[in-house]
Specification:
This protein is α+β, with helices and mostly antiparallel strands. It has helices at 11-21, 28-37, 83-93, 110-122; strands at 2-5, 43-47, 50-59, 66-74, 100-105, 127-133, 146-151. It is built from 4 helices and 7 strands; from the N terminus they run E-H-H-E-E-E-H-E-H-E-E. The structure holds coenzyme A.
């Protein structure tokens, strides 16, 4: 298994993995674009040439010390072994400017909430949780509310001990 930066050629496998794993499915174009323009802030886990996990993110324009994690996905058979946590650690470890991490999580997604709390605790960093987007913002009540996790500050570019 290896962790590497995303690139444009990953678009179609990331889209497929997103569909299999149950994260919000964006267009294939969105994943191609992510590999092209947001490669520095995204990471792919692959085994035998197959993507088995990914994190897509971007540097927050209004808060340049912050990485916003847009989506995290791990193939079902690979879950519960620390892969998502390792991808976050590796990605943040590559970004010397990154001293804070933000993400939004639906209240029913316990695995995702645990992932971000555990990331904060590995770094001894505070973790704040607050309502970010109420469900009324989404069309036809089709989407749960999203809770924002704000983690940091922590040492930029550092991997946990
Ligand atoms: C969320 C997800 C990425 C986690 O991937 P993973 O590789 O299994 O996560 P890890 O093994 O690194 O575990 C991270 C933490 O979550 C906990 N966890 C994992 N699965 C869990 C579950 N089903 N319920 C509760 N906690 C869980 C782990 O115990 C760990 O916490 P700890 O370090 O305190 O023990 C994966 O479950 C997934 O792809 N889910 C579907 C897509 C999704 O919901 N993505 C997030 C929203 S964009």
């Amino acid at each position: 298994m290896r962790l590497r930066a995303a690139d444009r050629a990953d678009g179609s496998s990331l889209w497929n993995l997103a569909r299999r794993s149950g994260v919000d499915e964006n267009s294939p174009y969105a994943y191609v674009m992510w590999g092209e323009y947001f490669a520095e802030t995204s990471i792919v886990a692959e085994r035998d040439g197959e993507a088995i996990g990914f994190v897509t993110g971007f540097r927050v324009p209004q808060a340049p010390e912050s990485l916003f994690v847009w989506q995290v996905a791990v193939d079902e058979g690979e879950r519960g072994r620390g892969l998502a946590g390792s991808m976050l650690d590796e990605l943040v470890g590559r970004l010397p400017w990154c001293r804070r991490l933000e993400a939004t999580v639906t209240p029913s997604n316990e695995a995702s909430a645990s992932l971000f709390r555990a990331f904060g605790s590995r770094r001894g960093a505070p973790v704040e949780e607050e309502l970010a987007f109420g469900s009324e913002l989404f069309p036809g009540g089709s989407h749960e509310a999203e809770v924002r996790f704000r983690i940091g500050p922590f040492e930029g570019g550092a991997r946990p001990a």
